[in-house]
Amino acid sequence: MLIDRKNLRQKGFAASLFLSTALVTMAASSPAVAQVSEQQSIDAFSASQYHYCDAKLMADFWGESIWQAKAGIGARILLGSGDYIPGKLQASRDNGNQCNWSETGFGYEDAENIASLWGLSSVEEAKSKMAWLATMGDTGDINQALGY
Prior knowledge:
8 helices, about 65% helix, 2 domains, mainly alpha
């Protein structure tokens, strides 16, 4: 029996290419990335620009726990695919996901100060505005007003 080595190599290359593409696609689409430890991922999330509200939005988007979302965000940062996160946060917002005031990381005194500083009519109005800004990923104005 005569074996066509060239044809066999081409089929082997095609199979290898298919398999590697499938694995990359699975890794890119999977919320949990296994190449780094969970603790490394959580540490990376904690040291990042992202906060609890972002993790909550991603958890809602991915259909998993907030802890898993923190690990997913941190893993992507560690693996160099952190540029993926802002788009997915926006997609989560577009799906109607949002944070409430208790998920912003700010305290009641912060809301009192924001109400006063921004001339809002009540602390409740401040809490609502802070929750909206956190959902939109725009806590910079809050932090600046509070001197953080």
